[in-house]
Amino acid sequence: MTTKAHTIKAPADADQRKAIKPMICYAVNDLPPFDAAFYEQAREGIQMVDEVVVPPRDAATFDVPAGHFFRIVSTEGPQVGDLNLWNSDDLNERFFSGKTRQLHATHVTRGDRLWSTLPGLRPMATITHDTLEWYGFDEFGGGVHDVIGTRCDPYTNHMLKGVDYHHCCHSNLTRALANTKGMPLTEAELHVHDVMNVFMCTGFTRDTQQYFMKASPVRPGDFIEFFAEINLLGNLSACPGGDCGSSHSDDATQCYPLLVQIFKPKEGALDSWRSPSRSAYSGTHGV
User: Fold this and answer.
1) Element (H, E) at 247
2) Engineering a disulfide at 226: which of 52, 125, 220, 240 sits with its beta carbon 3.0 to 4.6 angstroms away?
3) pLDDT at 1 over 50
């Protein structure tokens, strides 16, 4: 005996309801504008002061003082990375992918900011250069550097495949943070959060609206550059998906290292700049 799937009949005014025009949720024109001239001037004469190699299928942390630049660089082959950011003085203030998505777009590039969690809600980093900004959106609706996906994790992988895999980005980020902070894995894991998928090409299918990935357009020499608006602790995982064009969360895909470079502006370049303060909201919540 078979049972027909239960369906809901559309109301008589269904087309009218669907035809309502959308509006942008936040009045983003009221955000402080991206001062391209300032950042370009600040980039002139920058000097590299540190670099960190992120091994394939692993993660590494790095410190970026406020007022410094950092780049994530493709070096040996197409590779995507999962980026976490914290206020280095307070791990409770961390990157807020959802708010970044709402204030900017599903995929970020030069001129966009990475915002921190409530109650801080301030720019943590500003994207100042992106060699992949030419990509835009392709015919499938795919774009680069998304803030819509989470990091690959061993829990979802076990649920779908029934195996333990320890080099998902979530685990990589957890191990790296635990090692850097000298904390137990169980404590470090609670600080790992939704990521910016650096170099990853993603979107939603037009028929089923499912999240998809495709081979990244990144090539050796490509980089994305950020300006640290506050003192940052970064954590980057070189995803086990490689360029994310085939398999995922296993050791079958070709993977490559990523390079993080830290740059200091020349003396006097930031005389007019001040690190942004936390949100000025009273925090009383009506009480």
Assistant:
1) none
2) 125
3) no
> Which SS3 state, helix, strand or coil, does residue 38 take?
helix
What pLDDT was estimated at residue 35?
96
For residues 276, 265, 268, 89, the Cα torsion angle rounded to the nearest 10 degrees is 40
The packing angle between helices 169-181 and 154-161, to 10°, is 150
Asked whether the predicted pLDDT for residue 248 surpasses 90, the reply is: no
Domain assignments of the chain as residue spans, ordered by start: 49-264
Q: How many CA atoms lie within 13 A of 178 on its CB side?
A: 13
Looking at this protein, which amino acid is placed at residue 105? A
3-state secondary structure of 226: strand
Summarize the confidence of residues 218-247 as an average pLDDT. 97
- CA 96-100-103 angle, 5° bins: 140
Instruction: In whole angstroms, give the CA distance from residue 14 to residue 11.
Output: 5
Q: How confident is the model at residue 249, as a pLDDT?
A: 86
Up-side HSE of residue 266: CA atoms within 13 Å toward CB? 7
Q: Are 110 and 130 in contact (CB under 8 A)?
A: yes
What pLDDT score does 2 carry?
52
Q: List phi, psi (to 5°) of 96.
A: -115, 90
pTM score: 0.95
Residue 4 has pLDDT above 70, yes or no: no
